[in-house]
Specification:
By secondary structure, this protein is mainly alpha-helical. It contains 15 helices and 7 strands. Helix content is 56%, strand content 9%. The strands form 3 sheets. A 3-stranded antiparallel sheet has the order 3-4-5, with no helix packed on it. Strands 1-2 form a two-stranded antiparallel sheet. Helix 6 packs antiparallel against helix 8 and helix 6 (164-190) packs parallel to helix 15 (387-426). It starts with a helix and ends in a 28-residue tail after the last helix.
Length: 454
């Protein structure tokens, strides 16, 4: 009681500020500055205070020793291990022979009281030698007057977000792919008159690289969630754009690759027109499926609670028919790849240093490996890990696709160009040196002008 009387106005003001009851509600008290001097502590109030403190300290101790979710048994054991100086003096749930009031926990009666509108109601009791088993005396009454516990009071879910570090990694991968793509476009334009570059339609290479940019842009659409401040409507729009970016970028890449290889056919075989018809039908099927998916059952942003106790949740793009639509589009994705293989096989016997057929076949193989590896990996990451890790996996797979496109479209041309230039410099004859030469092409027919079209 002496300690009670010594409390001043600062503590009174703090207690008024944190009072959970609103003015006018039952049990609401507004204390003046001399509350502790004018009002004495109630009977057993010190024990009630220490009991509440021990419950709070036990919960904190149990939470630190677990992942944040605690059970009743863990909470009880943590309470029994608490030690602190309370309103009634030192509090310790341990038997000490030197203290006359100390008792063993197995021989102690424990009681749980329900404080409602200033009254103390016994709700549960644990009798000695019962193994701390609780027996209900009366139902617990909550502040709203019901016996059902309210939902946990917690802040808006701020967990299982992608995170700024993982987002920065994904956007960095996308930026690297796009910078390499733009640098490749610039290099092709600067050396467009060189024989190595001019040996195939330049516009086709540009469009292949454009498809790479479109495909890689899907990383941006996947990079955001509520943790980045995006609204649900904005996230829905981003989810809807993902299949359009991925499958449209893939089709643009291979439609252009097919046109590039077809340019080298020595003659236009009868099935060449059939390939064009197949590509047109595939393009229409692509558009129809994507449009049907967007209109009928589009991808939407969904956040599902995975732990009712802690409120842990995970957000992702999802729809009811995502497996069916994705599988149909994946099958169509292999149609232009197969067409490229067919045409590349027909021109395989030509000089590969000019048409780059070998590199196109390697690009198809690389893309097929990326696609086939991505499917099981992304399914596992989506179902068994956090959204942040799934996002990193998706970004890595999309980036690998882009690196394969850029590397096998432009890099061989660069290597061949610089090798030919270095060979020309190294093979220059010194002035005044003796040697022999052969003059050819004196009777060569007039050179025809070749118009390159894509």
């Amino acid at each position: 009681e002496v300690s009670w009387r010594q409390q001043g106005s600062e503590l009174v003001q703090r207690l008024n500020e944190v009072n959970p009851l609103r003015r006018g509600e039952p049990g609401y008290i507004y204390a003046d500055d001399h509350f502790f001097q004018e009002v004495g502590p109630g009977l057993y109030s010190g024990f009630m205070f220490d009991a509440v403190v021990s419950v709070g300290l036990g919960a904190c101790m149990a939470a630190k020793e677990s992942d944040g979710t605690i059970s009743g048994a863990e909470h009880r054991q943590s309470i029994l291990r608490t030690e602190f100086v309370g309103a009634t003096g030192p509090v310790q749930f341990a038997y000490q022979r030197t203290l006359r009031s100390s008792r063993e926990i197995e021989k102690t009666t424990l009681a749980a009281y329900n404080i409602v509108n200033g009254s103390y109601n016994l709700t549960d009791v644990s009798l000695p030698n019962t193994g701390t088993t609780w027996r209900e005396v009366a139902p617990f009454e909550y502040a709203n007057g019901s016996n059902e516990p309210p939902k946990l009071l917690r802040d808006p879910p701020n967990q299982s977000y992608i995170g700024s570090a993982r987002r920065a990694l994904g956007l960095s991968l996308m930026s690297v792919v796009m910078l390499l793509t733009l640098a490749s476009i610039l290099w092709l334009w600067l050396y467009r008159r060189e024989p190595v570059v001019a040996s195939s339609p330049l516009i086709c290479k540009y469009i292949i690289l454009l498809g790479t940019i479109v495909f890689s842009s899907a990383i941006f659409a996947l990079s955001f969630d509520e943790g980045a401040g995006w609204s649900t409507n904005a996230l829905d729009t981003a989810c809807k754009s993902v299949p359009w970016l991925i499958f449209s970028g893939h089709f643009i890449t291979y439609a252009s690759a097919l046109a590039k290889i077809r340019f080298y056919l020595p003659d236009k075989p009868p099935h060449s027109r059939l390939l064009l018809v197949v590509m047109m039908i595939t393009a229409e099927a692509y558009f129809a499926l994507l449009l049907a998916w967007t209109l009928a059952d589009p991808l939407r942003w969904e956040r599902q609670v995975t732990n009712d106790m802690t409120g842990k949740s995970q957000g992702a793009c999802n729809s009811g028919g995502v497996e069916g639509y994705a599988l149909a589009l994946l099958v169509l994705a292999f149609v232009p790849m197969t067409a490229c293989v067919v045409v590349a096989w027909r021109v395989r016997q030509q000089d590969d240093t000019t048409n780059g057929t070998r590199w196109v076949l390697i690009m198809i193989l690389g893309h097929a490996e990326v696609i086939m590896l991505s499917i099981p990996i992304l399914v596992i990451l989506r179902d068994q890990t956090t959204p942040g890790r799934a996002y990193v996996g998706a970004s890595a797979m999309i980036s690998c696709y882009g690196f394969v496109s850029v590397g096998l479209t432009v890099l061989p041309k660069m290597i061949l160009h610089y090798r030919s230039n270095r060979g020309t410099v190294n093979n220059k004859r010194k002035r005044g040196a003796r040697g022999s030469g052969v003059v050819t092409g004196l009777e060569a027919p007039p050179q025809e002008t070749i118009v390159q079209t894509c």
